[in-house]
Amino acid sequence: MSSLPAARRFPFSPKKSEKSPKKSPKKSFREAADILIATQKANDEYRKKRERTTGEPYSAVVEGLTGAQGTLAVISALLAGFAFSGLTAVTPEDAERVHPTIAMLYYATTTVSVAVQLFVCVVCTLLEQEGKVARGLAMARASDAASSYEYEEQLKGWYGRQEFAVFRTQIIWAFVFGVPCFAISLAFLCLLKIYRIEVALVCFSCFAFVGFLMLRYILWLNEMFRVGVLGLREKFSSPRVSWTKKKEGPEDDEKAKEIKND
């Protein structure tokens, strides 16, 4: 029995399993690094192609426009503060010393000026904050080209809405008409606080004339900007803050799908 082969002695003995060759850690790390580098190159190529077709990212445009509205917020806050300080400085004796119509006009113009400028200040501050947050989120998505492109398109849908553009235009007009109202309130304040009637009339005339000039030249500058830069012919119309995007080709769609899958 000992001379028989091993296969005949143990016909049902299991065969030895063939072991698969183990990959070295260096090779696995090299493959992962190659995949990461290839993905990064694909993202860079896609981003460069997108920048060539669309130019500056829309989030940068939103940041610039909302930053300009933030400047209006600062000016409106100053005007509202000055007007409210003058309102609190008037005593009942000052109001009784002049004609009731003058006191009523002062209270009306000052209240309207404070309310309008405060409203413009709060809204423009919120718009500036939202624009900066939108730009920050866009920069956070800059590493992923496909996600960044989708987010930029989402910003176009938010900031480029017609209702939103009309509201921003109304805010600008409120600021424009609130500035001469502030000057008129200062003119009536001179009649209330200056006891010499000659001096009070001179100060009233100066502030009233300055208010008229401010309204005239603000409207003139705004009209030149609207016609020459924004290309608007109708008054109180709002500009479009978007542009037609270039139609994507099949190569761009395939590249975006590849980046998403990676």
Automatic annotation (TrEMBL):
Residues 245-262 have a biased composition (Basic and acidic residues). It comes from the Eukaryota. This is Uncharacterized protein. It is a multi-pass membrane protein. The lineage of its organism: Eukaryota, Sar, Stramenopiles, Ochrophyta, Bolidophyceae. Keywords: Membrane, Transmembrane, Transmembrane helix. Belongs to the Orai family. Pfam families: Orai-1 (PF07856). Residues 1-31, 239-262 are annotated as: Disordered. GO terms for cellular component: membrane. The chain crosses the membrane at residues 72-92, 104-127, 171-192, 199-219. It is found in: Membrane. InterPro entries: CRAC_channel, Orai_sf.
